[in-house]
Design a protein that fits this description.
Order of helices and strands of chain A: HEHEEHEHEHEHHHHEEEEHHEEEEEEEE
Distance between the termini of chain A: 47 Å
Strand content of chain A: 15-25%
Number of strands of chain A: 18
Oligomer: homodimer
Largest sheet of chain A: 6 strands, mixed
Radius of gyration of chain A: 22 Å
Chain lengths: 386, 386
């Protein structure tokens, strides 16, 4: 049984070819990958076992040939179902040598002594192995140098293939089907934590493999925060409720939200919703290859201000795909040039009153001549749950 | 609204006091924490926003006073609801200075130039910040030394308080209520991926806040793998099906599984189940403070062999709590001395036939005079779903 998304081997070969172009431009002899999304990207290896921090997992992208997997024995069967042929396993956990010697051998084969090993070290990356093991590895491989390998991964992963776009669209649509059913689970008197549980169940019922992210909030005249777990406070008339989900299907995320008024919608809420709907519309209409991330931020923020709103600081959108959020950030200073195939969350937010905010979010993909919606568009008027 | 589990400030103060004992014994002036479970442990800060890799989060445990949070502004409101008073925020993402200068200032206050900063670097730990940022931080703080701070975290986190044990018991029980309802969702002809979706929904219906982990397998006469996502293959008579869940409530995990025969149970499956039930029983009966992890492994493995089974290699159990798996590992070579308050998964597995395995799992807490079950015990006989 092939795990993960239904991609042909040619999909993965094309990804590796793109990585190698970027590696060559930076004189990187091989990439060393440790993070779930990077390993999934080059192999298709998909598991929830990443939740256990006990074991390290490594994939090497050498200058020629297929990637090499250096992984715990418990994953050999699953990795064997991917397009990878060279799978080297150790009986993990083995804290004295958690794959380090096996990995060092594989890197010695791929990288000459004067060579450079690219390791993602930049924004949005983490080294998923014990730091002490990395120091040991680094000593063992000297004089080979570890250099920042973020750029090849970022350049390749940012632009999605049609197969990847189809996966993200599918996830967006199943979440949309769940959002359509919010009236079944949310009404005045229902506690927000019950709504959160039920909404995750709706995502599963509509086809999510799992729900990696659900956040949101509810409060009178707006919510105060968008990253908190749900309290058990019952929804009350006059509340604004927001649900923001990162559901996953075949390893691909959606990341968008929906707002609902509880009982009735006061004018301030309707007006805020109108402004954010228009700002989102402006972002969707303006987004196209060639502009940069900061420019798109500026268009969205200016639309909010032009309509009399107070835009939230920070970013008003970001990439997504095999993680909930990816590069670039739609914010001042992010000069990333947008490219066709990038999948973005357009996420304008505003302050309704001090400590009361509203945030909208939709997912799009950039096409040669503009953008295409992946999420079903939110209703133009703030919906009310009675 | 206080986020996370309903612990009083004294719970967190006691944790920090234990950390400081371990820090003092190792001449560590301050701990620097970056990982969700470590930060949750000392602050109670609970969010699913960790799913986004865009921002770094830092908590410092200095030699005196409360911990200091150095975090993205988007989390200041939520952190403000915990017992932490000193919260320093920056407008993240800000890749040029992703909290590094703010963090360096805070560490300079807590650690003298000749001092030592403890950072978890050992087994089961990851540095959750871009590696390039860590190198920058390290340069900025010289001559202060970063040393392995794993031991204080491990020593403190391994032993759960009564409040933590109550949380884990609650999660175990809600998963048990979901397992009791497996006959509603699994029968011959139902695809395994549908069962996985429905089981997660049952966990939510029974009170899980979210379901961070579900794995398992199904196959004729046993499954071949325990970490794969579910295929869409329909369950067939003669299959053995296993579901293994890491549901979460108030930030605390369970981690145990249940096996079911589909249609009917062949003798080989019944026998394997009997052996694993007995081996689990032996582990529960033997587990007590003072013995070491390898000894407990030996008792479980020997029981399997004595009954004619072939025990799986690797570990046959592990700690759990605020992550799906924690130290120690029940395996040869792990000399960790077990202590009262440790919560463990007892997880014997055996090979039924080549490539066909069965794995049992229960969760216990060690008490002064033995162990106490936290998960409702599996039925002694392999249940059959018709």
């Amino acid at each position: 049984v092939r795990s993960g998304p239904p991609f042909p081997d040619t999909e993965f070969a094309a990804r590796v070819a793109r990585l190698r172009q970027e590696m060559a431009a930076r004189e990187i002899d091989a990439l060393m990958l440790t993070a779930p999304a990077d390993i999934f990207y080059v192999t298709g290896f998909l598991t929830r076992f990443w939740e256990s921090p006990a074991r390290s997992w490594f994939v090497i992208v050498p200058g020629t040939g297929k990637p090499v997997a250096v992984i715990p024995a418990i994953g050999a069967e699953l990795m064997g179902g991917t397009w990878i042929d060279d799978i080297r396993a150790w009986p993990a956990p083995r804290p004295d040598d958690e794959g380090v010697s096996l990995l060092a051998d594989a890197l010695r084969e791929a990288v000459p002594p004067a060579g450079r090993i690219g390791l993602p070290m930049g924004p949005e990356s983490h080294l998923r192995m014990p730091l002490a093991d990395f120091f040991r590895l680094s000593d063992a491989l000297a004089p080979r140098a570890f250099v920042d390998g973020s750029a090849p991964l970022r350049r390749a992963r940012e632009v999605k293939s049609e197969a990847e776009i189809a996966c993200i669209r599918r996830t967006c649509h199943l979440a949309g089907a769940a959002f359509d059913r919010v009236p079944e689970i949310a009404r005045p008197g229902r506690p927000l934590d019950a709504v959160f549980r039920d909404f995750q169940a709706l995502c599963l019922a509509e086809g999510a493999d799992w729900v990696s992210y659900l956040a949101g909030g509810a409060g009178p005249g707006g919510y105060s925060d968008v990253i908190s777990p749900a309290p058990d406070r019952p929804l009350a008339p006059g509340d604004l409720m927001m649900l923001d989900t990162g559901a996953v299907r075949s390893g691909y995320f959606c990341d968008y939200d929906r707002n609902h008024a509880i009982g009735h919608a006061e004018d301030a809420l309707r007006r805020a919703h109108d402004i954010l709907f228009a700002a989102t519309e402006a972002g969707i209409a303006a987004a196209r290859p060639g502009m940069n991330a900061a420019d798109l931020h500026e268009i969205i923020a200016q639309r909010i201000e032009a309509l009399g709103g107070v835009a939230l600081g920070g970013r008003l959108g970001h990439g997504l795909g095999t993680t909930l959020t990816e590069w670039p950030s739609l914010q001042p200073g992010d000069e990333t040039v947008l490219r066709a195939g990038m999948v973005l969350a357009i996420e304008p937010g505003l302050e309704i009153a001090p400590g009361r905010i509203m945030v909208h979010e939709e997912n799009i993909v950039l096409r040669e001549d503009g953008s295409e919606l992946l999420s079903p568009r939110a209703p133009a008027e703030l919906p009310v749950l009675k």
